[in-house]
Specification:
It contains ten helices and 17 strands. By secondary structure, the protein is α+β, with helices and mostly antiparallel strands.
C-alpha cells in the first residue's frame, strides 16, 4: 500500500505530495485537465512499466520544467521507491530505499493493474490491443513475460530481414530455434494465466486462441516446440516484403459473458465495462492468492458507464480483495458511499484539500 507519493515536474504537476493516511480507497476528483489522470499515471510508473498511457518520457516531463521528472513513493512497510527521468537520458531509472535498482525490480514490490477509458473498447478493438492488455496482466506474475514478448518481436524482424536479403539458411535456422523457444514460453504463460484467472471468474470466462497456444493445449511443451519449429522451417515465404507467419504475435484473447450467453464484444457498453471490472477483480484476487501481496488497482474515470448499483457492487467487491484502489472522477458525490476512503480534490495541477467522508 502506498502511504505517500510525491510528483515532481510530472505532466502539469510542478510538485505535489499526496498522503493516503492508510486508506484503502483514494478518490481523486476535479474538472477535466486538472491533473487527475496524471496522478494515476505517476502511480502506474512505479510498477516498472511504461505507465498507463505508455507515453514517451519527454512527453511526461512538465513543459516548463527542466526536461525530466520524478515519482517518489513511501510504502506502508517503510520501503521507499522512486522512478525518475533526466533530460538527455534515453530511459527511466529506479531506486529502492535510495539504492539504484532496475525497473523490473519494482514489479516484485508493487503489483498493480489499471483500467482507463481506452480499455472500454477492448472487446471490439483489434487483437493487438487485447494481446497487449492481457500480456500486461500475465507479466504481473511472470516478470520475464514482457521481455520475452519484446524479444520475440525483435527476432521476427531479424528473420524477415534475413529472408528478404537471402541470408544463409543456417542463420535462419538459428533464428527459428530462438523464435520457437520464446513462442512456446509466451504461449505457456498465457494459457496458464487464463486458466488461473478463470478460477476466480463466475459470470464470464477468458479464452486464449492461437497456433502455439493450441499446440500446448493438445501436447506437452517440448512436443509443441518441435512442431512449431517444423512449421517455421516450412514457412519461409515472403509476400512482397512481408513475412507470412502465424504464431503468438497473432494470438487473441476472448471473453465470454456467461450471464448473457454471448461473447463480450456483442454485449452493451455497460455490460462490457462490467466484464472488464470483473476481470480486474479476479486478477486482484489472483495476485493476493499467488503472491500474498496487496494489489494496487487504478481506475481512471471509474464511474463511466456504471449505474449506482453497479458502482456500489464494484467498491464492495474491491474491498473484499484487500486492494488499495486509486480512482478518478469528475464528481465526488458519485463516490459518496465509498468507505475507508480519502478524497483528493485536484485543481490545475495542485492538490487543494483532502477530505475524509464518514466511514
Amino acid at each position: 500500500m502506498i502511504e505517500t507519493i510525491t510528483l515532481t515536474d510530472f505532466r502539469n504537476h510542478k510538485m505535489c505530495r499526496l498522503h493516503t493516511h492508510g486508506r484503502h480507497n483514494v478518490i481523486i476528483t476535479g474538472p477535466n485537465g486538472a491533473g487527475k489522470t496524471a496522478i494515476l499515471e505517476a502511480v502506474s510508473m512505479l510498477s516498472g512499466d511504461r505507465g498507463m498511457r505508455a507515453a514517451p518520457m519527454t512527453d511526461i516531463a512538465r513543459f516548463n520544467g527542466n526536461g525530466g521528472f520524478s515519482v517518489f513513493a513511501a510504502l506502508n512497510d517503510d520501503t521507499e521507491i522512486s522512478v525518475f527521468f533526466n533530460a538527455g537520458d534515453t530511459n527511466r531509472r529506479a531506486r529502492i530505499d535510495g539504492d539504484a535498482a532496475t525497473l523490473s525490480d519494482l514489479s516484485s514490490l508493487v503489483r498493480m493493474v489499471w483500467l482507463t477509458p481506452r480499455e472500454d473498447r477492448l472487446f471490439v478493438d483489434s487483437a493487438a490491443e487485447r494481446r497487449a492488455f492481457f500480456d500486461r496482466l500475465v507479466t504481473s506474475f511472470d516478470s520475464s513475460h514482457a521481455p520475452r514478448v519484446g524479444r520475440l518481436s525483435k527476432l521476427l524482424s531479424e528473420r524477415a530481414f534475413a529472408l528478404k536479403n537471402g541470408r544463409d539458411a543456417r542463420w535462419i535456422d538459428a533464428l527459428d530455434t530462438q523464435i520457437a523457444g520464446a513462442s512456446v514460453a509466451i504461449a505457456a504463460a498465457r494459457v496458464q494465466y487464463a486458466g488461473e484467472l478463470n478460477y476466480y471468474l463466475a459470470d464470464c470466462a477468458v479464452t486464449v486462441s492461437g497456433m502455439v497456444e493450441q499446440m500446448l493445449i493438445d501436447e506437452n511443451a517440448p512436443a509443441a516446440e518441435r512442431k512449431y519449429l517444423a512449421y517455421l522451417h516450412d514457412a519461409r515465404d515472403l509476400v512482397g516484403d512481408k513475412m507470412v507467419l502465424d504464431g503468438p504475435h497473432r494470438s487473441d484473447f476472448g471473453v465470454f459473458n456467461r450471464m448473457l450467453n454471448l461473447p463480450a464484444a456483442l454485449t452493451s457498453t455497460g455490460q462490457q465495462k462490467t466484464v472488464l471490472l470483473d476481470l480486474i477483480l479476479a486478477h486482484a484476487r489472483l495476485i493476493r492468492t499467488k503472491t500474498h501481496c496487496q494489489p494496487l488497482i487504478l481506475l481512471d474515470e471509474a464511474a463511466a458507464h456504471l449505474d449506482a448499483d453497479a458502482r456500489a457492487r464494484l467498491f464492495r467487491d474491491l474491498a473484499e480483495t484487500d486492494a488499495q484502489v486509486w480512482a478518478t472522477g469528475l464528481d465526488a458525490n458519485v463516490f459518496a458511499d465509498v468507505a475507508d476512503a480519502v478524497f483528493v480534490t485536484c485543481m490545475d495541477g495542485e492538490i487543494n484539500n483532502i477530505l475524509f467522508p464518514k466511514d
